[in-house]
Write a structure and sequence with these properties.
The chain has 9 helices and 8 strands. The protein has helices spanning about 15-25, 30-40, 45-55, 60-70, 90-100, 115-125, 165-180, 185-190, 200-215; strands at about 1-5, 25-30, 80-85, 110-115, 125-130, 135-140, 160, 195. Helix 2 packs across helix 3, helix 4 packs parallel to helix 5 (about 90-100) and helix 6 packs across helix 7. The termini are close together. Bound molecules: adenosine monophosphate.
């Protein structure tokens, strides 16, 4: 199965992608995670991307397209993948079409997670993850059962993304509306776009995604 999760920052793409990984045994390809790993490792790409990401702008199409085309050739993508955070521009979507056509592959669905802008800033600025196991929390919506202790691994170190602040989120939302939202009509015209209510609770969103996938 090959899917794209499309939606604004904070829509819950990463959370749902993780659940789809467990349900379908396919891999999650998060370009944000790949870029953060490159920044942390200090690679050339990481050095080029760091300031752009911190400001909330989009990293260049060339970098992203090269990164994804290399990644989808790896063995673990054979059973399928979920693209989380890619494509984010029409140029990336067109490059993806070319990449898939070259391998005679197609997309099963593009899933739009719809969330009102008003909800997103609070969702993003309140979120943090366990520094050890990566489980996600939120200051108000999803605190650990015991304050300061990870429910999953019991550790006490947490981390916040450096771009999860109001200024960067505002820029990220603008980038979404200006550069990524045009992908909605692009995929709608191809008949592959399915929409789910990203404002429903997490389990309900998962149910909606699974049901649109079953309907094909
Ligand atoms: P994310 O984790 O998906 O919110 O991505 C974090 C940041 O990485 C974004 O704000 C961009 O700066 C960069 N980024 C991730 N994916 C892409 C992409 N497909 N195109 C351009 N920039 C990206």
């Amino acid at each position: 199965m090959r899917l794209i999760l499309l939606g604004p920052p904070g829509a819950g793409k990463g959370t749902q992608a993780q659940r789809l990984v467990d349900a379908y045994g396919i891999v999650q390809l998060s370009t944000g995670d790949m870029l953060r790993a490159a920044v942390a490792a200090g690679t050339v790409i990481g050095q080029q991307a760091k300031a752009v990401m911190e400001a909330g702008d989009l990293v260049s199409d060339d970098i992203l397209v090269a990164m994804i085309s290399e990644r989808v050739n790896e063995d673990d993508c054979g059973r399928g993948f979920i693209l989380d955070g890619f494509p984010r521009t029409l140029a990336q979507a067109e490059a993806l079409e070319g990449m898939l056509a070259e391998k005679s592959l197609s997309l099963d669905a593009v899933i739009e997670m719809k969330v009102d802008d008003g909800l997103l800033i609070g969702r993003i600025t309140g979120r943090y993850t366990c520094a050890n196991c990566g489980v996600g929390y939120h200051d108000e919506n999803l605190p650990p059962k015991v304050a300061g202790i990870c429910d999953n691994c019991g550790r006490t170190d947490f981390t916040r993304r450096s771009d999860d602040n109001v200024a960067a989120v505002t820029t990220r939302l603008r980038a979404y509306h200006e550069q990524t939202a045009p992908l909605l009509p692009f995929y709608r015209e191809k008949g592959s776009l399915k929409s789910v209510d990203g404002m429903a609770d997490i389990d309900e969103v998962t149910r909606q995604i699974q049901s649109v996938l079953k309907m094909g």
